[in-house]
Design a protein that fits this description.
By secondary structure, the chain is an alpha/beta fold. It has one domain (11-285): Glycerol-3-phosphate (1)-acyltransferase, CATH 3.40.1130. Helices cover 46% and strands 16% of the residues. It is built from 10 helices and 9 strands. It has helices at 10-29, 33-49, 53-65, 71-97, 100-104, 134-144, 158-166, 177-188, 222-230, 264-281, and strands at residues 107-111, 124-127, 147-151, 171-174, 192-195, 207-212, 215-220, 233-241, 248-254. The strands form 2 sheets. It has a 7-stranded mixed β-sheet with strand order 1-9-8-2-5-3-4, with helices on both faces. Helix 1 packs across helix 4, helix 2 (33-49) packs antiparallel against helix 4 and helix 3 packs across helix 4 (71-97).
Length: 308
């Protein structure tokens, strides 16, 4: 009798992945930040020299969004970005697991801090693009006052990430109607709401195509809906990496006019323009490998194909 091959138990496999990932993160968090960031640079350099999807996608996005650069300048920006990309993902263990006070002490300067003022009694919607150390931006925001952060549950390390993001007092709101209600309630109490604004929405509603660096990008309308409903101000905030072990500079920037407009396209265009203004400050630290233009208007297919 021929025995059937043993099929791995998906739940056991997931538990094993979770344990390995958790062990790696805890081990990395023991290293000094400067060491992690230098190791991250080396990891990112591997993405530069070996053909891979991250390298390809980053160059595709840069060519689409930065057409004024020469081909050589586009490649140089891609390479710098991939090295910063490596730093982003190795330093994240430090930002997640070190004591909150130690992590917050890494903020060496805050530009535009007056924009975080809530003395008028209105809530503030704080948009943190995938630029620099966005995990630090969320932690810093919650340390300034009551904060609800829109959070997409993760397949791996979800408990660890939730605990890390909540350790300076944030409430995590799931990316569903219940989470939106939590955001509204917090804003109506005059609190902060933290949102990552530059991800492509998954559904076919609550978003429109609006220009991002001149390229149509499927863009969320959640920020517009929240601002119109609650009267909350909207600002952008991100943490710029200063160099290995040198800490971070926090930037707070007022949102462009129109982000709370009645017209969806006007509002989405203003949101993307705000992300562009942030990226212009430190373009090397933006996550250019992200497939921002995967969903296209009718006509052209996804641009993310071709040789690595």
């Amino acid at each position: 009798m021929v025995k059937s091959p043993k099929v791995p138990d998906p739940s056991r496999r997931r538990i094993l992945k979770e344990r390995i990932a958790s062990a790696v993160v805890h081990l990395a968090a023991r290293l000094p930040l400067g060491v992690l960031q230098r190791l991250g640079w080396a990891l990112g350099h591997l993405f530069v020299v070996w053909p891979n999807k991250q390298r390809r996608n980053a160059l595709i996005n840069i060519r689409m969004c930065q057409p004024s650069l020469t081909p050589q300048e586009q490649v140089e920006l891609r390479d710098r970005t991939l090295r910063e990309f490596g730093r982003t993902y190795l330093e994240i263990a430090y930002l997640w697991l070190r004591p909150a006070d130690d992590v917050l002490s890494l903020v060496k300067e805050v530009r535009g801090a007056e924009l975080l003022d809530r003395s008028a009694g209105k809530g503030v919607i704080v948009l943190s693009p995938h630029l620099g150390a966005w995990e630090l931006a969320g932690l810093y925001l919650a340390a300034q006052g009551p904060t609800t952060i829109f959070y997409k549950p993760q397949r791996l390390l979800d408990d660890l990430i939730r605990a890390a993001r909540a350790r300076s007092g944030a409430i995590l709101a799931p990316t569903n109607p219940r989470g939106v209600r939590l955001l509204v309630q917090g804003l109506e109490r005059g609190e902060y709401a933290g949102i990552l604004p530059d991800q492509e929405p998954k559904g076919d509603s609550g978003a429109v195509f609006a220009p991002f660096f001149g390229v149509p990008a499927y863009t969320m309308l959640l920020v517009n809906r929240l601002a119109r409903r609650t009267g909350a101000r909207v600002i952008f905030m991100f943490a710029e990496r200063l160099g290995p072990g040198r800490g971070f500079r926090m930037h707070c920037i007022a949102a462009p006019d129109g982000i709370a407009a009645d017209d969806d396209l006007v509002a989405a265009t203003a949101l993307n323009r705000g992300v562009e203004q942030c990226v212009a400050i430190c373009p090397d630290q933006y996550v250019w490998p992200y497939k921002r233009f995967r969903k296209r208007p009718e006509g052209p297919p996804s641009p993310y194909h071709g040789p690595l």
